[in-house]
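Retry 2 of 3 after timeout on previous attempt. Resubmitting structure tokens to design endpoint.
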């Protein structure tokens, strides 16, 4: 096992010799790299100043995902990973000493949640690139996920990447469908004390672009401790409202059938796996309520 780990770190370092991690000093000998594997493991490789002359070492391995890992971010405070099972997120608090990752007491689990994004049966080619959930943010900032629950919706849920808590809900001012979104950071002005500000850009089906102030939303969340305390993604009521805009029919029969409701004529048809997932949620809610 140790030999396999050494081979993994050496091959990765040779493939990306100049890849900067979340922290790297001016001499270029401070590197931290986090990556995920197809088997669901999350690994952290480090090379600190006191290990100069040696290759990067495998620092930590987490085996918490049951599906291939699709995204990993390592920030100053958190390690966040996402797997392909309905964007299942796991996060850990990173312990540092003098800026470097420390094993005392080591990284501790923080949260486990999902950024569920239901897919249409036939999404457009650019859907995945234009609707990436994140996480967004610099290594020294609070990173966020943007959750678009259903394909055709005018709402986005902004959630903290560290624990999944809700920051705010974005709703198109004109009720148009959100077709794309991204997060962008703008440098602050030259005035003393000014800081960079983060904005969310949303593109819409009618060709318009709307701009949202993410920095202010985060500030309001921090000031009001009750905001996002018990909420993350959509509640059951909010989910039902969002699903009203989708066609949940899952019939594959070739015999003639009744035409769908006019309100669903242009609605997105969800994948059968998504419908099965919703049925599991409904069954779990029923069992919890009966208990």
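Retry 2 succeeded. Sequence:
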């Amino acid at each position: 096992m140790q030999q396999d780990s050494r081979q993994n770190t050496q091959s990765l370092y040779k493939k990306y010799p100049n890849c900067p991690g979340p922290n790297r000093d001016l001499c270029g000998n401070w590197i931290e790299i986090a990556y995920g594997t197809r088997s669901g493991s999350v690994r952290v490789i480090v090379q600190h100043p006191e290990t100069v002359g040696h290759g990067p070492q495998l620092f930590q391995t987490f085996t918490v995902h049951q599906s291939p890992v699709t995204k990993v971010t390592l920030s100053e405070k958190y390690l966040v990973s996402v797997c392909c099972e309905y964007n299942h997120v796991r996060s850990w608090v990173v312990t540092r000493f003098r800026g470097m990752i420390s094993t005392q007491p080591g990284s501790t689990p923080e949260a486990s949640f999902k950024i569920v994004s239901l897919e249409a049966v036939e999404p457009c080619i650019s859907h995945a690139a234009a609707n990436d959930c994140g996480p967004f943010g610099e290594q020294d900032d609070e990173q966020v996920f943007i959750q678009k629950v259903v394909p055709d919706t005018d709402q986005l849920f902004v959630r903290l990447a560290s624990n999944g808590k809700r920051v705010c809900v974005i709703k198109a001012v004109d009720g148009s469908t959100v077709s794309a979104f991204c997060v962008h950071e703008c440098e602050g002005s030259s005035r003393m004390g000014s800081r960079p500000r983060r904005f969310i850009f949303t593109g819409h089906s009618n060709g318009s672009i709307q701009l949202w102030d993410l920095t202010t939303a985060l500030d309001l969340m921090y000031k009001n401790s009750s905001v996002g305390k018990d909420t993350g993604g959509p509640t059951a009521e909010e989910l039902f409202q969002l699903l009203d805009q989708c066609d949940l029919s899952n019939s594959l029969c070739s015999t003639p059938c009744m035409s769908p409701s006019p309100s669903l004529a242009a609605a997105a048809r969800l994948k059968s796996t998504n419908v099965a997932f919703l049925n599991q949620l409904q069954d779990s809610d029923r069992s919890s309520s009966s208990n």
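Attempt log closed. Helices lie at 2-15, 127-130, 214-223, 236-243, 272-290.
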